[in-house]
Amino acid sequence: MHINDAVFLEDLCPKFRFRQWRKSIHKFTGKSCIYCGKPSESIDHVIPRSQGGLSTTENCVPACLSCNGDKSDENALYWYRRQRFYDPRRAMAIRAWLEGDLRLALRLLQWANPNFRIIKNYEKDKSEYKAA
Ligand SMILES: [Zn+2]
């Protein structure tokens, strides 16, 4: 297959690209809701589309259906502050995510939830160096 074919294929199948993108968002948090930590079943716009929020990775976070539905058309940062499960570390993570600093966002999420597993790409595997 030529490189040109691949580009053409991607242009031809925006749906496929979209699905891959959605998958990667869920993968960042290990499929857990950025707000409450429950399994993420949807993608939520931190700044809602109705307020000019874009469908970019910075503005799209994994969320459970309950949080996504409850938040509805509100700005996530304002909505989240009123929730019973509010955690300042998660709030900071959402802010970092929004600013495009996924690395910091994931660290904060890990801090908020020790069971949270950070994905490999974001952590240098030091044991690998020791073994060498
Ligand atoms: Zn949730």
Give a quick rundown of the structure.
This protein has 132 residues and is mainly alpha-helical.
Features:
132 residues, mainly alpha, two-stranded antiparallel ribbon, 50% helix, 6% strand, binds zinc ion
> DSSP strand (E) fraction?
5-15%
If helices are DSSP runs of H or I spanning 4 or more residues, what is the number of helices? 7
Sequence stretches where pLDDT stays below 50 over 5 or more residues:
121-132
Shape: globular
Number of strands: 2
Radius of gyration: 17 Å
Describe the structure.
There is one protein chain. This protein has 132 residues and is mainly α. It has helices spanning 3-12, 14-28, 65-71, 76-81, 88-98, 102-112, 126-131, and strands at residues 42-45, 60-63. A two-stranded antiparallel sheet has the order 1-2. Helix 5 (88-98) runs antiparallel to helix 6. The longest helix has 15 residues, at 14-28. The model is unreliable at 121-132 (pLDDT under 50). The protein binds zinc ion (ZN). Zinc ion binds next to helix 3.
